[in-house]
Amino acid sequence: MPSRISKVLWHMRHDGLCETAKVVWLRVRRLLASRRSRRTGARDTRPSHGFIEFLNLQPGELVRVRSEEEIASTLDACGRNRGLIWMPLMREACSKEFRVYKRVNRIVLESTGEIRTLKNTVLLAGSVCEGIYNCDRSCYFFWKEVWLRRVDESGGSS
Q: Are both 23 and 79 inside the same structural domain?
């Protein structure tokens, strides 16, 4: 099995998909660990619905994005926290400081017109998609509050 995984990762890197290779590897490791735990009877202590943290962030507050390892620990087997996916492009923002642009409570899905309600989700000023596949939209990334840490204006984390 490890030889198959390394072949897949090699092809991903070779085809220019380096950003996703690490995320895929983390998911594969998590999947293998869950299979191993089923065989041995050990249980995964993480809740299947994802971690929740209520910071009640408001526009203008200063936050620091947690490290990639901290964020990975909040994700389920599909790389999501309560349904919101962690995108590989968001990795560039890890450990950096941003101001909260606004809270996100509702969004409209362009494909269906469905209105979805989001909880504990914010947009960060300056944290936008730089465009993949030649897209020029510069969309904001959606950030769960559990992926962020409030920063004191004096410079220290709280």
A: no
